[in-house]
Backbone:
């Protein structure tokens, strides 16, 4: 019986004498069956979860703490303060919710809207569609404003629509559309919304862009933005981030969609004492704390420049492989690059071959399943990983009869990166 | 610039050559500011999050993987199969949702009910009250069936109420009430519900009991039960567990409460291919996988016996300190023990003194704040940790003028444990 081993070892000092846990002492090897772990050296290039720095991984293995104690409160305050400063807000509250990014999208909707509210969802891909679907599920009166997949939304067209439409209560926007590798001109879109009749609330899915791409919450008039720990923040998934500005708080007071777990007011009330209403993902926060520190150490302009330069490298490398990128140059994301699968190349076997070499990329979503492939390059990434991904993909393309000069593409990736960095950080 | 360091290190083998991440290579010490970590040897005796075994902590530091890849699918299947067998179900689906236990409570409600549905909430404490509050927030017509705090619900009284009341769509029950240290006679309560007019759905908050206390989902006719990774399962918080039986699935088809993130049907659809609809807390699952393995290795009857014996030890030890336990003997929980704070002892300074010695216990909740103290003893716990907690509390009581023989209480804790184990495992 495992627990009996400590039964005769009565401590005697006033200091709590527990060393190691019951299972550590009982002499059973918990690893006697193999754990499913990735092989060493896997190059995880999906658009999240992203590879996490060794320091973050180590932090995640720290002993558990009381989520209502002083250590936790200090950690919560450091993370929320750090995120706030990195996204340019002094007036919004950063709330850390235990959940996926999609949970934060739901939270953004149910805290600011009432059933029947007119909502415009600007959708340019699968995640914009998800925003619309959630809003509809909770009874919003949803109008969709669409761009073709692979393109960004046009601020002038949005302004025109808003000027002629009945006023909306809120406009839901995507900062960076993960399904197509497109970044929206968020500043201009937000300005168009604020100029519209009724000055609708500006609610942003910033999940795959925040932290990595320029974002100025207060200056751009973003009322509410959500993100998630496993993207540019370099943590593991499990913490959803909601940043709530004054106009969103005012909307929350009037909002009548049902909510309990995701209730922002409850989260703010507990955050004031350094806690969360419900037991949070403590170990994920251990890691996120370090991820945010790493970003603050780097400095946000340098982080943005690094992501822009790696994106330039990815684009150059993939084009050197003869691939066609999904997005037009001005619409391309700095965190996700999508390319069309060459004619006649079947995604399943091609993807399996790349995975066999340790390269993990993502395929297309929804209507684009089997048609495109997507590379994530956000968070803890350097040009080395990206060039390696391009090279391995090039070698695999060649094996599948789509001749490509992998070494040349590797070189093009690095060169475009260096050129972009030279301009950004002269 | 951090990422530039790898720029000239072009790989050349066909195998992906990434070793270590960009931040590992850049030579910055991420620990240059202190991290808030608990001191070594802290005895975390709150009712969750619980201390996690070293093997679980190590697993949480594994490299990130693709949540839509084969390694993840194998892990998901192992965890869900393991949990199902440990709680006695062959017919229910085990769903792993990223969130806190309270999120799983919300999920249980919104997936099985429609606004206006008559729901009986059997509440014996703060977590029963939470169940009622969530159901009301989503528009259920809630009737409360209460026991006094500190007591269990009476199956005969419940049967009597159900026989005379208009039929309910569902009855919400608490397996183990964390706020008072009381376990409900769940088997008998469930039987009373099934005998009632309309055969209401039996929905159980099993968060702080499941895995540690006897529970037979299929045999007892439990339609839906929820739990959370950080309780008896020995993981970190962040994964909510929902186990959904056939009658709950049927209810879900008719249920009209709005839902998106918590939608069970969506979770089941993705689980069939070894995935989750939204990005899950992968690192928490790494740990939970090991926690479930440890429980399977121990065997559920032995796990239940260990928890019962440690509870007996805790009760004996606290009574030896002269404390009065909250619950009557037949109602006492095997995972949480609550005792009244002695007259004239102020909780704040007393708690601070215990924390100064590394002993972390919980105070009272809601109306019982400052009146009781609660010890968690679930998951990775042996009698050594519990006896140590009793001894440190005894020494602190003495310092506060509430004379107690700490060494004798330590001995009584161990003796009661040994006696209980001798009966359970002769």
Residues:
């Amino acid at each position: 019986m495992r627990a009996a081993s400590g039964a005769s070892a009565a401590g005697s000092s006033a200091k709590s004498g527990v060393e190691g846990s019951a299972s550590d002492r009982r002499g059973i090897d918990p690893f006697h069956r193999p754990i499913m772990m990735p092989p060493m050296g896997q190059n995880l290039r999906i658009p999240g979860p992203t590879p996490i720095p060794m320091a973050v991984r180590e932090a995640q293995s720290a002993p558990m703490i009381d989520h209502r104690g002083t250590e936790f409160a200090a950690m919560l305050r450091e993370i929320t303060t750090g995120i706030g400063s990195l996204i340019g807000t002094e007036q919004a509250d950063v709330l850390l919710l235990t959940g996926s990014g999609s949970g934060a999208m739901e939270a953004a909707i149910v805290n600011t809207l009432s059933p029947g509210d007119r909502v415009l969802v600007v959708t340019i891909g699968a995640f914009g569609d998800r925003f619309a679907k959630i809003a509809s599920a909770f009874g919003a009166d949803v109008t969709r404003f669409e761009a073709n997949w692979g393109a960004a939304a046009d601020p002038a067209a949005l302004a025109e629509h808003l000027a002629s439409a009945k006023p909306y209560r809120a406009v839901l926007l995507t900062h960076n559309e993960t399904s197509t590798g497109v970044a929206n001109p968020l500043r201009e879109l937000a300005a168009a919304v604020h100029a519209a009749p009724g000055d609708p609330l500006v609610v942003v899915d910033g999940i795959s862009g925040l932290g990595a791409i320029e974002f100025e919450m207060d200056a751009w008039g973003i009322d509410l933005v959500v993100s998630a720990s496993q993207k540019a923040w370099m943590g593991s998934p499990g913490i959803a981030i909601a940043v709530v500005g004054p106009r969103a708080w005012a909307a929350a007071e009037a909002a009548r969609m049902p909510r309990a777990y995701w209730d922002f007011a409850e989260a703010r009330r507990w955050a004031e004492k350094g806690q969360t209403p419900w037991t949070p993902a403590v170990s994920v926060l251990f890691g996120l704390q370090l991820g945010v520190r790493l970003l603050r150490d780097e400095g946000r302009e340098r982080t943005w420049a690094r992501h822009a330069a790696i994106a330039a490298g990815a684009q150059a490398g993939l084009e050197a492989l003869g691939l066609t990128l999904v997005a037009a140059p001005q619409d391309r994301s700095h965190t996700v690059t999508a390319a069309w699968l060459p004619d006649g190349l079947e995604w399943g076997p091609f993807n399996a071959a790349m995975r066999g070499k340790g390269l993990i990329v993502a395929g297309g979503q929804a209507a684009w399943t089997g048609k495109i492939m997507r590379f994530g390059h956000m968070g803890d990434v350097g040009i080395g990983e990206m060039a390696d991904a391009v090279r391995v993909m090039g070698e695999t393309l060649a094996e599948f009869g789509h001749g490509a000069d992998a070494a040349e593409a590797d070189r093009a990736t690095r060169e475009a990166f260096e050129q972009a960095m030279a301009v950004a950080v002269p």
Remarks:
- DSSP finds 15 helices and 14 strands in chain A.
- Chain A touches chain B through 134 residues (CB under 8 Å).
- The domain at 300-421 of chain A is CATH 3.90.1150.10 (Aspartate Aminotransferase, domain 1).
- Chain A has two domains: 54-296, 300-421.
